[in-house]
């Protein structure tokens, strides 16, 4: 973990001003987009959400929308039956328990239907400027490959990242690692010859043959 600061300094140069690649105009829209992004690409979510937000861009509108209509609008995101239920129940929670306003704390976000640690962390950091590290498949893969963490599950990965990285850098570091995984350190074929941190990478040292 001694290389963590050096790795993040380089990734910060590779991805200046990092931000979510999901399109949204409010905390609620971000929350919806993140729920839809489970096992689905951000690109696909961004293709689906305009039509959805045209009819349901608020918790009140989403909770009032028939479940079948939500399913129809999000079908191409995959797992649309369960995701539609999550969206409707989450919106209803916000309306009935939080007066139609998306809560701005991690603890409250995690009480919403369909909202787990990763989703809550993303919304807390991106929508409300909080410090949190959301561990998706990219962050899990890359942080282990780089050797920043040594974990077999997402929760341990999150905990170890929080220990290895200063709190004030959590939100940006999440994006650095995620974007590096999306564009360089890909799941099947990492582009090690284009990677600016390969000289600090545990995976590269173990797998690269001169």
Could you name the key traits of this structure?
mainly alpha, 210 residues, 12 helices, elongated
Annotate the secondary structure layout.
Elements: H1 4-14, H2 27-36, H3 42-55, H4 59-64, H5 67-74, H6 80-98, H7 106-109, H8 117-128, H9 137-146, H10 154-164, H11 170-183, H12 202-207
Helix pairs in contact: 1-11, 2-3, 2-8, 5-6, 9-10, 9-11
Biggest sheet statistics: none
Number of strands: 0
Global mean pLDDT: 95
Order of helices and strands: HHHHHHHHHHHH
Radius of gyration: 18 Å
Shape descriptor reads elongated
Task: Identify low-pLDDT runs.
Answer: none
Helices and strands: which structural class?
mainly alpha
Amino-to-carboxy terminus distance: 25 Å
Q: What proportion of the residues form beta strands (DSSP E)?
A: under 5%
Helix content: 55-70%
Count the helices. How many? 12
Question: Explain this structure to me?
Answer:
This protein has 210 residues and is an all-alpha fold. Helices cover 60% and strands 0% of the residues. The chain contains twelve helices and no strands. It has helices at 4-14, 27-36, 42-55, 59-64, 67-74, 80-98, 106-109, 117-128, 137-146, 154-164, 170-183, 202-207. The radius of gyration is 18 Å and the shape is elongated. The chain starts with a helix and ends with a helix.
């Amino acid at each position: 973990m001694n290389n963590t600061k050096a790795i993040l300094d380089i990734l910060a140069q590779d991805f200046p001003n990092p931000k979510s690649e999901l399109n949204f105009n409010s905390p609620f829209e971000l929350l919806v987009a993140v729920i839809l992004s489970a096992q689905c690409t951000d690109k696909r979510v961004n293709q689906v959400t305009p039509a959805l937000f045209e009819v349901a861009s608020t918790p009140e509108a989403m909770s009032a929308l028939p479940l079948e209509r939500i399913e129809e609008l999000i079908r191409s995101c995959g797992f649309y039956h369960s995701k539609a239920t999550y969206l409707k129940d989450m919106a209803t929670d916000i309306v009935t328990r939080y007066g139609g306003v998306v809560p701005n704390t991690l603890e409250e976000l995690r009480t919403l239907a369909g909202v787990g640690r990763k989703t809550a962390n993303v919304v807390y950091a991106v929508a409300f400027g909080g410090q949190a590290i959301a561990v998706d498949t990219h962050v899990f893969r890359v942080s282990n490959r780089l050797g920043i963490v040594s974990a077999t599950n997402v929760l341990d990965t999150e905990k170890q990242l929080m220990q290895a990285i200063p709190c004030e850098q959590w939100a940006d570091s999440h994006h650095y690692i995620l974007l590096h995984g999306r564009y360089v350190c890909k799941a099947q074929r990492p582009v090690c010859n284009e990677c600016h941190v390969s000289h600090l990478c545990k995976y590269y040292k173990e797998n690269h043959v001169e």
